[in-house]
Each structure stands twice: as structure tokens, then as C-alpha cells.
Write a structure and sequence with these properties.
This protein is an all-beta fold. About 0% of the residues lie in helices and about 55% in strands. The chain is built from no helices and 11 strands. The chain has strands at about 15-20, 30-35, 40-45, 50-60, 65-70, 80-85, 90-95, 100-110, 115-120, 125-130, 135-139. The strands form 3 sheets. The chain has a 4-stranded antiparallel beta sheet with strand order 1-2-3-4, with no helix packed on it. The chain has a 4-stranded antiparallel beta sheet with strand order 5-6-7-8, with no helix packed on it. The chain is globular and about 45 Å long. The model has no long low-confidence stretch (mean pLDDT about 85).
Amino acid sequence: TNDWNVIAKLPGHKLTVTTLQFSRNTKYLASASRDRSVCVFKVEQQDTSPASFHLMAKQAKAHDRVVWCLDWQHGQTNQRFATASRDKKVKIWEIEDEPFKAKLVSTVTFFHSVQSVAWCPHSRKAFVAKVTAYVHFTD
């Protein structure tokens, strides 16, 4: 860790970034923040050069409260990810290429703040969301 260097500073958020995650195919990096926004960056890697990151989509008001967590869907396409928020919602987003954007495709509302979300690796539809002291499995 003594020789770590900053290779990029990613734009897009005004407050603390709460989570970062690469898509399963490593083509994208998604980030979420206390400012309620979600950003998607395209990752470009050439040979041994450091990766470069290009802001491709930003949802400035992705949620009504802080976004705590996000997770990319398992599977072949890696075009969907879920976000979890203090606003009691889990939202499912899909990446569209032309024009590039993150499109909201579904919203699930819970009774309490949602601190984490993870796609189930054995199903393309199911995910796990932690809501306060409980874990809910949703299909």
C-alpha cells in the first residue's frame, strides 16, 4: 500500500460516496452517494495502462434519501443493477446503450430504511434486501 497512486478522480457526486461496485463483466462502475444520486461510468482498459473512467449516466435524484448500497445483477448481460436507500425503496435500473442511460424499470417499497441489497446468484429476478433488523428475500 505504500506505492498506491491515484489514477482517477471520478466526478458526479456532491456528498460522500457510500458505495462503488464494478459490473460483473467489469465494463461499468456504478457509484451512489449521500446526495441521493447514482452514477454509471464506462471502464476502459488498454493493455497495462491504468483504467480510465467516463461518466456515462447520472441520476441526480435516484432516490428521495441517501443511497446506501447497490449491486449488479448476475448473468450474461450485466445490464441491470439495484439500489437501496433510506427512503425505504429498492430500485432496479437497466443500462440502455443508445443513447446511454440508466433507466428505472422497477421500484419495491418496504416499511423501513433499506441498508443493503444483493442479487441472488442463482436467479435473474431475485435479490436480497436488508431492512433494519430483517432480511427479506424478494422475487
